[in-house]
Amino acid sequence: MILVFEIPAVSWALTAVLSAAGAYHLYLAARARKVTDRINEVLHALMHAAMAAMIWNLAPAALLAQIGVLAAAALWFTLQAIARPEYKLLCTGTQGRITCAYHAATMAAAAFMLTIMNTTSAGNTATGNTGAGNMPQMNMGGMVDMGSMPMNHHTTTPAAATSTANPLTALFAHQSAPALILAILFGTAAITFTTLLLRRQPTTGHGTHGNTHNNRTKHALEATGAATMALMFATMTS
């Protein structure tokens, strides 16, 4: 399990943030007029729920379903980002296409994180790696108990056997590099959305105040989500 998740305060804080963001996306889905907007908001809510469940290792039996939904969501946002301009219900304009592309990357990253967590957990369980199982034990006389030390002569280690038997585990065995890259990318996104949130918005024109409020809310949601993703990926680099 990710080390930072062993800290209850961090786990509860991340759960609260993800739950609040997911609830607000459901609120936006209920108020959306377009069908595509409603689907988009529901998918965001499902992603936040899956991330919160991952923190507490909930619903492991539905893990494949969660990964499938997130992968389908990534494909859905990708199709919106590359759709023809005449499809007005999908992402239109440069800003809209960039937003949909970013959301596709977010959904794919969430699916990747769930896959890594499940594979790493399964690998540790199969190898019996508890962090202290390979340490030599001292007897009462202060001598090292050789029987407790690992014997490697003409034997295959459990980790090697697991890697051979499970190619997926071997594939994600070195997840530090991609996790670090994703942590940097989402950290940069969080800074970008925070800058947009704090930037002064124009106040002229009829109805501008409502649009400004909506933009600030969206930027706050995006900044919070990106910062949470960056933190969760950063903890996977150790």
UniProtKB/TrEMBL annotation:
Q: Could you list the residue ranges that cross the membrane? A: 12-30, 65-83, 95-117, 177-198
Kindly indicate whether the keyword Ribonucleoprotein belongs to this entry.
no
Q: Which Pfam families match?
A: DUF5134
Write down the InterPro entries for this protein, in alphabetical order: DUF5134 (IPR033458)
Keywords attached to this entry: Membrane, Transmembrane, Transmembrane helix
Identification of the protein by name:
DUF5134 domain-containing protein
